[in-house]
Amino acid sequence: MKNNELFDTVIKTIMKKRSSDTISRKKFLKVLGNVATTSAGLVYGCNSNNQTLSNNSDNKATNISTGKMEYRVNPNTGDKVSLLGYGCMRLPMKTNEQDDEIDQEAFNELVDYAIAHGVNYFDTSPAYTGGFSERSLGIALKRYPREKYFIATKMSNFHPDSKTKEASIALYHRSLKELQVDYIDYYLLHALGLGSFAEFNTRFIENGIFDFLLKEREEGRIRNLGWSFHGDVAVFDYLIAMDVKWDFALIQLNYVDWKHASGINVNAEYLYKQLAKHGVPVMIMEPLLGGRLAKLNYDSSQMLKQQQPGASVASWAFRFAGALPNVLTVLSGMTYKEHLVDNLRTYSSLNPLNDKEKAMLEEVAQMILKYPLIFCTECDYCMPCPYGVDIPNIFAHFNRCITEGNFPKDLQDENYRKARRAFLIGYDRSVPKLRQANHCIGCEKCIPTCPQRLNIPNEMARIDKFVEELKQSAATI
To answer: H helices within 370-455, ranges in order?
Structure first.
């Protein structure tokens, strides 16, 4: 059986050829069900209904000067990589009555604007945007000379049927085909540390796929070989100690996770310094911690605004991430032009943080840690829920109410009535009733898919209890 045919069998025909301009994901999701997917790029300031949230930017003219993009040189290859990388986990969508589809024309326009302003690094995966991100990116970039851009994609062999050598090789060849290229600039072993050592061995070592990828690098079809990391520090340390020349690594890094990583995530300071020590260039994901660093509470926002009134809140996080010398690129999932423009403004060219500003961001981080937020990055890895629960949007509403001051804490609080009303009305508007937390049955299928290692059923039960208490309190206020 040919590679492409085998992969189609593995994924149960969900990635059949469709027209290049009309790319459906709803049918993909119906077939895919609850397959675990993992991803790296992110969108900030946007909820799962694609409603734009404030980025706290003055958002004046979009006339960013060209020719001023900050670049970093890859010491292994001499690649001149744009400090701003385009993450393609989520792409612009157009919605009609029948289906949700990628808006290829809108994405092409974003890519055109990004390239015109110096962005040359694009990160994708076979698992992104319902399985069609690679195809859409291939369409957008095919209009440019191949030397104009660097493509990063991943060995996303998470599904049990995709872990064999044959299926993984088919996945690799499918990436080349969808991206319409004959070599990949940056290829990643996807989401190492998300599982155990046994998972790493099953996906890459025992099936021989790692040896295959090393051979592909030797023959030039992979120009740089690296990995993305989530979670288990023992796996990270093992990877660093391997007798392998790693060309780069992708890690979660932002000014909160630098010293205060949550759950089983590892402090980014440790990850970064270990990679620098071993001469491994760093790519960064989650610079905005799932968008939370783009929309802070009032006190934190004012602290930053007083320092630089014309700068967006998000720009501080990008300045923090981009200032580190061993960083090649910082990924951002820029579904909207306003995000792209703001990031271009930050990195054209970069204004490094001074010591006072670094201390201020640590103070902001400490303020963020005081809030009882659920550390969900709205990556959608847990979706679709087999029972229809809108997990990311439930968490997003809960967190949003905390950061915006609409979190009802105590009946004695003078603002309790107002906050209670805002929370409950906002909950019904943000999440359809049939998709709210009370419909979670605790099946736990979502738990292994979460890079933040959240116990999602427990959080759903906690939120449902909180909502019910708010409803019952109507009789006492």
So the answer is: 391-403, 416-430
